[in-house]
Design goal:
- With 119 residues, the protein is mostly beta strands.
- It is globular, with a radius of gyration of 13 Å.
Length: 119
């Protein structure tokens, strides 16, 4: 069982930056992969970024590659999404998620945090 709590969303102008944090607690986190997803109004939830807690392998959606960076802080059990050069199309509710390394589907989800980018 993993409990996830996101923070750091808000309103920012296009070209600006935001830093999202996901505080994780519960099971042995080294057994988990972590991901960030987002959902804009009227759209399907989409993958943003992935990191393996044990080893740090990362993957990004093409739409955010080069602008967003996912990282982990082992001491604080936190996963961070640094978002730079934000665009209005990045506006969405952002969710942190976790799954066991051996699983395909993400099992645990946070409550989400709103990111709004104004043009």
């Amino acid at each position: 069982q993993v409990h996830l709590v996101e923070s750091g969303g808000g309103l920012v102008q296009a070209g600006g930056s935001l830093r999202l944090s996901c505080a994780a607690s519960g099971s042995t986190l080294s057994m988990y992969d972590m991901g960030w997803f987002r959902q804009a109004p009227g759209q399907e939830r989409e993958f943003v970024a992935f990191i393996r807690w044990n080893g740090g392998t990362t993957f990004y959606a093409d739409s955010v590659k080069g602008r967003f960076t996912i990282s982990t802080d082992y001491a604080k059990n936190t996963v961070t999404l640094q978002m730079n050069s934000l665009k209005p199309e990045d506006t969405a509710v952002y969710y942190c998620a976790a799954k066991l390394i051996i699983q395909i589907e993400y099992e645990y989800w946070g409550q989400g945090t709103q990111v709004t980018v104004s043009s």
